[in-house]
Amino acid sequence: MGRPMALNLAHAGVPLTVWNRSAAGSEALRAAGAEVASGPAEVCRRADVVLLMLADGPAMDAVLGRGTPGFAAAVAGRVIVHMGTTSPGYSRGLAADVAAAGGRYVEAPVSGSRGPAETGDLVALVAGEPADVETVRPLLTPMCRQVFACGPVPGALLMKLAVNLYLITMVTGLAEAFHFADRYGLDRRLLRDVLDAGPMASTVSRAKARKLLDGDFTVQASITNVLDNNRLIAEAARHAGIASPVLDACHALYRETEEQGHGPSDMAAVVHAIASRTAALDRARLTL
C-alpha cells in the first residue's frame, strides 16, 4: 500500500524523498517527481517528517536502525510517523525510544486496502502529542478521506485493531453466507443483489461479495495479512482479559485457509476453509 499512498502525495505536490526495500517499487514514484534515496538513512537526513508504511515491527526497526548507533541520527529532530499495523505494545516502546533519541512520534495506521490507497480514500487514525499530530495531518489529507484523532499512543493502533476485528468477522460471515447459499442451491447473484439492497450493504460487503460470486480472489488484503492482524487483536484481547469468541473462530478459519495454500489470496478466500469443513462433515456422514 505504500507506493499508491506515496503517489498520492507526489501528485498533490508534496516534496517527497522515498525509499523502498524493493528498488523497482520506487520507479513509478520517480516518474511522478519524487526523489529516490539510496537508503532509509538518506530519507531521514533529507526529511523533517518520515512516514513509514512497513509490514511489521522488525522491518521498522531495521529501517530506522533501532538498537544501533544510527537510530538517534535517523530520528533526532524529526517526526517519525508509524502508518502500518503492529502491536500497541511495540508502538508504545518505539515512541519511548524515539523521544529518548530526541525525536517526535505519531501513530497513523490507516483503515482500508489497496483500492482505497490508490484512490486516496483511506481512513487515518492518529495518536500522539497534539502538536505533532497537527504537523502530520496536512500530509495525510492527499492519502485519506478522513482523519480521526485517537488521543495518546497507542490509541490509534488500539482503534485500528477494533476496526479490524469487525472487518475480519464481517467478511468471514459473508463468506459463510455464500457457502450456505451454495449448499442449498440458491441463486448466488440474487443473494448478492439482496445484500446490496439491504441495510448491511457497505463498500466492503460489495467488494467481497463480488469476489465470492466470481471466485476471483485477487488480493486486496491477503489471508496471511489478515491472519497476522487476527493474532495482534487476539494478543491485545488476552492482555486486557477480554473475551473474543467470534474472533477466535475466525482465527482458526484463516489459519486453515493459509495451511491449504491460499495465504497470498484475498481474505474472501476464507470460504475455502468453510467449504473444507463442510466436506469433512460429508465424509463423516458417509462413514456412518
From TrEMBL:
Positions of the 3-hydroxyisobutyrate dehydrogenase-like NAD-binding domain: 159-273
InterPro entries reported in the protein's UniProt record: 6-PGluconate_DH-like_C_sf, 6PGD_dom2, 6PGDH_NADP-bd, HIBADH-like_NADP-bd, HIBADH-related, HIBADH-related_NP60_sf, NAD(P)-bd_dom_sf
Keywords of the record: NAD, Oxidoreductase
Active site annotation, chain numbering: K160
Keyword NAD (UniProt): yes
Molecular functions per Gene Ontology: NAD binding; NADP binding; oxidoreductase activity
Presence of the UniProt keyword Oxidoreductase in the record: yes
Start and end residues of each 6-phosphogluconate dehydrogenase NADP-binding domain: 1-151
Family: Belongs to the HIBADH-related family.
PANTHER family hit by this protein: CYTOKINE-LIKE NUCLEAR FACTOR N-PAC, OXIDOREDUCTASE GLYR1-RELATED
Protein name: NAD(P)-dependent oxidoreductase
